[in-house]
Design brief:
Blueprint lengths: L2 H10 L8 H14 L13 H14 L10 H14 L3 H13 L4 H8 L7 H15 L6 H9 L4 H22 L19 H16 L5 H8 L24
Helix pairs in contact: 2-3, 4-5, 4-7, 4-9, 5-6, 7-9
């Protein structure tokens, strides 16, 4: 009789944080001081355990001989193309910066950052493969398989490309997601999950958008992606001494 309400109550209960302030500080110190990454706002969204797991997996993937076909520099090409397609500027800045650090031509990197295909044959094949994988969420059409085969891809190498694209797509989602707010039962209704103040703010935003003048097609197009030369893509780069940005 009381089992169903009890299960419902337990499922809605918010678990207490199982980590301390020191745990978070230690995790941030580990990734910034020991691993050489800058302190990104995205790190603050993750619990200490999640941060260490995410970054450990990332570092394992870019280590030498982590994959059979793809090198760490190949991954940077794939991740630049993937981040550009997903409009994740923070990830795009890192991986485009890595290519520049590896002395790849700036115009080629700019092309990839803008969503294009570079002229360099080796980078072009990786970018094309990444775009095909993204187009159908991992499914390759027969004509796409034939095209990729003509560029020298084997079935096994395409599996690695698919894995690399999926890894970066997941990180893109994580890094662009807003930081979650604390759940406050006292100001939240169960059926909507929206507080009174949040509802008012939402109505205010809708009203403001309704009053705002509509943008022209040219305005929408120009604001969709900033110019590569004037965008903030390269404002957040790893320190020059960081080993993650140097490829031989």
């Amino acid at each position: 009789m009381f089992a169903r309400p009890l299960i419902l109550a337990l499922s809605l209960a918010t678990p207490a944080a199982a980590y301390t302030k020191k745990d978070r500080e230690d995790a941030i110190k580990w990734i910034t001081e020991e691993k050489g990454f800058p302190h990104l706002a995205a790190f603050d969204k993750m619990t200490p355990k999640m941060l260490k797991t995410v970054m450990t997996n990332y570092l394992n993937l870019v280590s030498p001989d982590a994959l059979e076909f793809l090198t760490p520099l190949d991954l940077e090409v794939i991740w630049t193309a993937t981040s550009a397609a997903n409009n994740c500027e923070i990830c795009l800045s890192f991986h485009a910066g890595a290519l520049l650090g590896a002395e790849k031509p700036a115009d080629e990197v700019a092309t990839m950052a803008a969503g294009g295909v570079p002229k360099d044959p080796k980078m072009a094949r990786l970018v094309m493969a990444a775009k095909y994988v993204l187009a159908h969420k991992g499914i390759l059409l027969e004509r796409e398989k034939l095209h990729l085969s003509s560029m020298g891809f084997s079935a096994e190498e395409l599996v690695e490309v698919t894995f690399a694209v999926g890894q970066m797509a997941g990180l893109n989602l994580l890094y662009v997601a807003p930081r979650p707010r604390s759940f406050s039962p006292s100001s939240t209704t169960l059926h909507t999950g929206t507080s009174t103040s949040s509802a008012k703010a939402s109505r205010s935003r809708r009203s403001s958008r309704a009053r705002a003048p509509s943008r022209t097609r040219s305005t929408r197009t120009s604001s969709r992606r900033p110019s590569f030369d004037h965008s903030p893509l390269f404002c957040v780069l790893l320190p020059p001494s960081s080993k993650h940005y140097h490829y031989s």
